[in-house]
Design a protein that fits this description.
Radius of gyration: 19 Å
Helix content: 40-55%
Number of strands: 5
Strand content: 15-25%
Distance between the termini: 58 Å
Largest sheet: 5 strands, antiparallel
Structural class: alpha+beta
Number of helices: 9
Shape: elongated
Order of helices and strands: EEEHEEHHHHHHHH
Strand order of the largest sheet: 3-2-1-4-5
């Protein structure tokens, strides 16, 4: 089992990195988060998850232990394969994904390409007890709250409500319930306006 690879980055693309370790190039499938972390580096250490099947031997690389742990949890969910897990981690940062799972925000998961309502709900149900937010997540939670605010505000204005009034009500709702979903925020706002 390969735990990590440390070497020169021979090539780097948004979905793959080739790490040269002692003259052998290892192709690693990576997320956009890991791609961002590797930008501008000549040498890097990537944590590895191996997927060995009858017809393939794939390596997945991660810049952080947190991201690799979430990847491993995601592929343990029925219906979520390694490419879907990598897509989720590319669309949602690891700390934010922890908040999404703990907060039960299936609406945020549904924004990821290829994730439907049932898969989003299954991920949350299966992983809610296994994921514990790490330090620094409070900052990420405010990012999630901002996104909920923006989406809910856009929906409210499309429904014909004045932007300032909708914004005031939504701000109060989200401050009282930071992990609220977009749908729940809209429903509460409709009841108050």
């Amino acid at each position: 089992m390969i735990e990590y690879l440390y070497g020169q980055i021979a090539s780097l693309a948004p979905t793959q990195a080739v790490v040269d370790c002692g003259g052998v190039g290892y192709l690693l499938n990576i997320s956009l988060s890991s791609y961002d972390a590797l930008q501008g580096q000549e040498r890097a250490k990537l944590l590895v998850h191996e997927m060995i099947r009858e017809d393939s031997h794939d390596l997945y690389g991660f810049a952080t232990e947190q991201e690799r742990n979430l990847f491993r949890l995601l592929i343990g969910v029925s219906g979520v394969g390694p490419n879907t897990a990598r897509t989720i981690l590319s669309a949602i940062s690891a700390p934010e994904l922890e908040m999404v799972i703990v907060g039960g925000d299936h609406g945020r998961l549904k924004t990821v390409k290829g994730i439907g309502l049932k898969t989003a709900q299954r991920i949350i149900v299966d992983l809610k007890d296994k994921v514990k937010p790490t330090e620094g997540v409070v900052i990420e939670a405010s990012t999630a709250s901002t996104q909920v605010m923006e989406e809910a505000l856009a929906a409210m204005t499309m429904l014909g409500f004045p932007r300032p009034a909708a914004q005031k009500v939504l701000k109060k709702i989200i401050e009282g319930e930071p992990s609220i979903t977009v749908e729940a925020a809209i429903k509460k706002a409709l009841a108050l306006l």
